[in-house]
Specification:
It is a single chain. By secondary structure, the protein is an alpha+beta fold. The chain has one domain: Jelly Rolls (Sandwich). About 15% of the residues lie in helices and about 45% in strands. It is built from 1 helix and 10 strands; from the N terminus they run αββββββββββ. A 4-stranded mixed sheet has the order 1-3-9-5, with no helix packed on it. It has a 4-stranded antiparallel sheet with strand order 2-10-4-8. The chain has a two-stranded antiparallel ribbon with strand order 6-7. A hairpin with a 5-residue loop joins strand 6 and strand 7.
Length: about 150
């Protein structure tokens, strides 16, 4: 492929990703958007569908009580999507490149280096736990995912 054609394709993909990121994530200059996981009345399991751009993250909070069992899983047809689960004292900041920087204690086997696709564990203390769903820095520019969360 000629260098000029490759540069044009790269520019088009960058513009496509920018056009999709702002409306989907609703990014503002000061804060990263988060969503709260809720369960239908009488249910302990819910699934949230989302879409990520290359290197992007979606952030969710789930309220849990000490002693409950939390199950989290993520599925996708394309791309390397994984998640992390953080204790209630986790802090979210925006990096210079507008990506999420998470500070705090991740739950065992659900941290940044674990590339978790499925996780089950007992909640150590009551609070709002942070789930960060991420798409790797390589692979498809855009991918859909399903995040399933159960709390019992």
């Amino acid at each position: 492929m000629r260098p000029l054609a490759f540069a044009s394709i790269a520019l088009m993909l960058t513009q496509l990703a920018s056009a999709v990121v702002a409306p989907v994530l609703g990014q503002s200059a000061s804060a990263l958007p988060t969503s709260t996981i809720t369960f239908p009345a009488g249910q302990t399991l819910t699934t949230v569908n989302g879409q990520l751009v290359l290197g992007g993250s979606d952030l969710y909070y789930v309220s849990a009580k000490a002693g409950q069992t939390l199950l989290v899983s993520v599925a996708t047809n394309e791309g390397d999507v994984s998640f992390e689960v953080y204790a209630p004292d986790a802090a979210i900041a925006k990096s210079a490149d507008s990506k999420a920087m998470l500070r705090g204690k991740a739950l065992p086997d659900a941290g940044p280096d674990d590339h978790a696709k499925a996780w089950v564990g007992r909640i150590p203390r009551s609070g709002n736990y942070l789930i960060a769903v991420t798409l790797a820095e390589t692979g498809p520019v855009l991918t859909d995912y399903s995040l399933t969360v159960s709390l019992q």
